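look at this fold:
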Amino acid sequence: MCEFTAKDYKKGQPRWCPGCGDHFFLASLHKAMAEIGVAPWDIAVISGIGCSSRLPHYMNTYGMNTIHGRSAAIATGCKVANPDLTVWQVSGDGDGLAIGGNHFIHANRRNINLNMILLNNRIYGLTKGQYSPTSPRGFVSKSSPYGTVEDPFCPAELCFGARGHFFARAVATDAAGTVDILKAAYNHKGASVCEILQNCVIFNHGTHESVYTKEGRAKNAIYLEHGKPMLFGENKEFGLVQEGFGLKVVKLGENGITEKDILVHDAHCEDNTLQLKLALMQGPDFPIALGVIRDVEAPTYDDAVYAQLEEVSSKKNYHNFEELLLTNDTWEVK
């Protein structure tokens, strides 16, 4: 097996605003691909339209910059037609969840073996600052000068509601955390969704400010690891316990709380009730969950399609168009 470096996956000069979260994510994607080790010529990167969707131009792989909101549809066809190809689909929160929302939920429902990346900066950047499906209620933008009157999508909730089997989250400036979830997404067989929290320095600066720095993540985020207790804080002094049907933050040492009382993360549990609660946590009362939140195996659409074709084909007495013609009466005109 060939050994690759991040340089083997790089191409061109990225053209994003200085400081854009896309730069951070692209570097992590190059690194993750090198560690995964799939050859560049066995990879396709498919995107839609938007700032994030320029990403295939900077990948030394097969790639396609498609039309607005349709990257999941194109990626689906690409994977089903080329089952041995590793397919990464890249969308922004506008491209992926507004016009592309229908394709997003059905790619998850069908469990197509795609690595779906959602770069979430809570704004339309390429079209100059309109609010997106993930912008918070009251958000002031060029298309909502008095504040939005809508509640946003939570990508995790949408993924889980569509019967999604893999969901992970990272912050664009956290290279190690991003590489970890990208590798986990690749190793998951089926539709995987990685939400990347990133900054738009021009139109929505500071939208993920609480976790955008290493110090902020130490205080305001929890890194979930399968089989590990849910501890967080600068010194791992806080933890999560169950209280009724909800979650509660506790401090170790107070009221007799020990590490044995802390919930242990189970990313492989088929019942997604607790996983969804973790994914929906947000400040100031709760930390933001990072890492692999859900990772459950299930039959994939592409495998099922090929299994069905083989089953049907084995029962037919023809296997191509010429044989099909010869199944009926034939004659020759001279």
The chain has a mean pLDDT of 95. The longest strand covers residues 288-295. The first helix runs from residue 21 to 36.
